[in-house]
């Protein structure tokens, strides 16, 4: 099949459940999406609210507290909210991404040269009695490696060990401090660290984000050299985009018609739908790509109208504040956006 850009857009939104909300437990949606980007604490709640017919944010918090959902550094060297099975496998797969960060990070500096075996033993010793706040973890490591700062060593621990971020971090409107506290992800989940079945991960990605190229899977995961992996998966179908580029897909995956309506949606700073393809053009016109990106990441949260990035917004005192729209909206589009704003403000008020 030859996919036009519009069909790719609508098919992505269909598989992301952004064309029509569905009744599904939040944990099941997180599993379908292979995690939710959670660098900003509000983002997973917005991602779920955009996809589910009803969302109780306190139920998501409860899932984080009872360990049904786990915050961990995984895909693209960013914090994601995962099911436990993914929280102990995807970070193992993504170790090369963290290694690249070790080499490039100015924050870590000279601490990147620390003896790896001695450092791993020190982290095990420091966390032997249970989880610790990030600052205390760094401070205790600095006692053992005094030539480096606590902040540097905390950064090294974050990259070399697979650590879960514990609640109340990431919970809905917690009382008190939300400073990061860490524990070993395998101890927190009760599951052993292991390499994932990479072809199975690719199939899951395609079910939620496909059809896609090898470079798209790399953009989503941060893992390189995936072309041979996809080519060796003989069960996949091969399509092409309007430029003749090959696109892989799982057999029988749903495909949307080009004229399928795409309702307005308000998403967080780093929603998966924006970050999971090489050119980020599945939901964004080339001339608007720079709208979202500031010097140090996202400038604000994103507005989608008719399936495409249409502006930016932020939450201010529990209200939706539109920062900018890239075009005038039709009367029906404005009505859709107004309804979506009311829905999000209802969530923010909970």
Structural class: alpha+beta
**Could you give the order of strands across the largest sheet?**
2-4-3-6-7-5
Strand content: 15-25%
Largest sheet: 6 strands, antiparallel
Shape: globular
Provide the helix percentage: 40-55%
- Which parts are unreliable, with pLDDT below 50 for 5 consecutive residues or more? none
Number of helices: 17
Number of strands: 15
Report the radius of gyration as a whole number of Å. Answer: 21 Å
Number of domains: 2
Mean pLDDT: 95
What's the end-to-end separation, in Å? 45 Å
Assembly state: single chain
Description:
The protein is an alpha+beta fold and 350 residues long. It folds into two domains: 19-189, no CATH class; 265-348, no CATH class. It is built from 17 helices and 15 strands. It has helices at residues 5-15, 26-32, 43-51, 57-65, 84-87, 90-93, 95-104, 116-126, 134-144, 150-160, 185-189, 198-209, 214-221, 227-232, 272-275, 289-292, 331-348; strands at residues 2-3, 36-37, 70-73, 79-82, 132-133, 163-165, 181-184, 237-241, 246-249, 265-267, 293-294, 297-298, 301-305, 308-316, 319-325. A six-stranded antiparallel β-sheet has the order 2-4-3-6-7-5. It has a four-stranded antiparallel β-sheet with strand order 10-13-14-15. Strands 1-8-9 form a three-stranded mixed β-sheet. The model has no long low-confidence stretch (mean pLDDT 95).
Main traits of this protein?
alpha+beta; four-stranded antiparallel sheet; 350 residues; globular; 2 domains; 15 strands; 17 helices; six-stranded antiparallel sheet
SSE blueprint:
Elements: E1 2-3, H1 5-15, H2 26-32, E2 36-37, H3 43-51, H4 57-65, E3 70-73, E4 79-82, H5 84-87, H6 90-93, H7 95-104, H8 116-126, E5 132-133, H9 134-144, H10 150-160, E6 163-165, E7 181-184, H11 185-189, H12 198-209, H13 214-221, H14 227-232, E8 237-241, E9 246-249, E10 265-267, H15 272-275, H16 289-292, E11 293-294, E12 297-298, E13 301-305, E14 308-316, E15 319-325, H17 331-348
Parallel strand pairs: 1-8
Antiparallel strand pairs: 2-4, 3-4, 3-6, 5-7, 6-7, 8-9, 10-13, 11-12, 13-14, 14-15
Helix pairs in contact: 8-9, 9-10
